[in-house]
Amino acid sequence: MKLFYITLLLEVSLFAQAQNKITGITSDKDQKPLPNVTISIPEIHRETISDSEGKYVLNHLPDGHFTVVFSSVGYTTKNVSVALLTKETTLNITLDDNMIHMDEVIVSTAFNKVQSQNVMKVEHAGLKSLQQRGAATLIDGLATIPGVAQVSTGTAIGKPVIRGLSGNRVLVYSQGVRLENQQFGEEHGLGLNDAGVESVEVIKGPASLLYGSDALGGVLYFNPEKFANAKQLKVDFGQRLFSNTLGSNTTLGLKTSTENWKFLVRGSYNTHADYQIPNGDRVTNTRYNESDLKTGIGYSNSNFSSVLRYNFNKLDLGIPENGIAEQSTSHSTDFPRQAVNNHILSLHNNFYFKNSKLDADLGYIFNDRSEFENSNTASLHMKLRTFNYDLKYYLPKTGKVESIIGIQGMQQTNTNSGEEYLIPDAQTRDFGIFGTANYEFGTNVLQAGLRFDNRKVSTEAHGIVGNEGYFEAIDKSFDSFNASLGYKTNLGKDITLRANIASGFRAPNLAELTSNGVHEGSNRYEIGNADLKNEQNLQTDLNLEYKSSHFEVFANGFFNHINHYIFISPNGNVIEGNNVYDYVQANAKLYGGEAGIHFHPHPLDWLHFTSSFETVTGKKDNGDNLPLIPATKWNNTLRGEFNIKNWWKEGFATLNIESTFAQNNHSAFETKTNDYTLINLGLGGKITVNKSVFQLNLNANNLLDKTYISHLSRLKSDGIPNIGRTIILGISFMI
Q1: For domain 207-734, which architecture applies?
Q2: For a Cys-Cys bond, which of 24, 198, 333, 571 suits 318, CB 3.0-4.6 Å?
């Protein structure tokens, strides 16, 4: 709590009143005023819209160097770096006709650069675009991004996979803080609802320099929805219906802002029955119900900005254990089931000095997870409380060099109150310190950093020696030094090359260190190993891009070597009918990449063709295949954009063909998976009826009702196919 008081004192102590502002006019290439252009400074949560004459004003801005983003539908996004050191800055901007590439500001990396200036290749996708692709859930949408997949258990449970790495090797950030929700469990999903999420950024590769342990495989960084612009009140309603699961997703949001204060609140409810496979059967107890509340309040002036957000997510989740059994369209979960209550409280602060800045992120996460086997008395009940902090100081810019120093930490407590113990009562403490610098010269950017981390894990003894559920007390400490080096250059006017080499680490989790019993849904008796070492990796990445007004092509390649890779292996014993597995370690390597094109032919400016190819191979150093490696995928989309008079704007129609190759490179404990091709259709846009504007999405996923089994489906071992044809109808509007 001391950090909260430090933050409060810093806010009170800032008394300078810079009162900077930016004014200007937005226009097109013919110098005609452009109305409805969004002008934003994402770093300080300030945004406005140009009026009918193209004029705009951004008030109450602090001193410092910022990126101002100008964006409008049908025009190329423009990013302008501005030094706010005077009372008023005039910035007149001309926007060009739309190109195929959007240059987004990347929040998840150190210096919040736009993608074209960024040393790392980071995938950015807006929630709206994911829903237009027919994503039924947030994790479904992520799996459409090249290099990202999901380990799924039915439609409700999905765990992200980045380039073949999953579980605790992928770190998830929400509201600017790391999400901790007992994510080590196989039946523990992402735990986030898509309502109130603006966009997601995906770092594919080790990001331990910025995020510490568990970012060995990559980071998913979810950006929350923006506040309303100053002096605006917005109320919106959204409804999506799902034919296959007889499901619905309802959301209602309100947000308003003054020049200094901002407020928003959003509630949503999600309910689904068992999903249906192509032969008409339903997979028993894959039903679930979810309630979600997100709220936020922000204050900003020319000295500092502060945003407090809270998210409560309540999940009632059926666990499929009997495959295709009793047929039902009920939405009430049967046994076994899980009840998960998750609270996320975050406080994000920016303090602005004349030539420097301090960011202070504080977070508290409370995850309350219960499992009910055959009655309403919880057999398993775990409570995880996590407090984390992240302080970054942006030093004054020296010539062309920008630099950051920072500290991060986490204090975590896990307690059990049920009859069964999945992991023991434990405390985890993290501390990390790092520094990184960014040097720009011409079209070249060089970025490097160094970090040290320490994690301490202490557990309490429980149970009777020799019996299931016995945990020996342990007190372990894990240290790691990590570094990164990246270089970006323009080989030509439209060609960009990025090269990165970075190390990462992951301390073993509590399940790997302490397990002693049959874990839920695994059908195996797992025994932990208190002598496990850090996973330590070194990954090299190469990214090459060519972009022009009507054509874009990219190729990403990577090689990732991991020392002390942790996995489970059978030891030949059987306990109570379950094969016994030990947690062991071996060196491993993963390699592969993604490639794709985006063709936007002229003069057929309404037509877009995108194609992406992704592949990853994972092996231990002895040549054995690693588990949970996604199959090679080839994805092709034809998209048409149109306007019909004044009643259908920003219209689109899509045809997507998703081809997944056979996965024959499976581990010794998996089965191979056949190839399959899915066809998906989409249609939507803004519909105007009597001056009321509706956003409409209509999708048909797996249109031909193809019977298939994903290699990363946890129902694969029972021969249960993935979901059949699904029609999704979504509509949203301002009230």
Answers
A1: Beta Barrel (2.40)
A2: 333
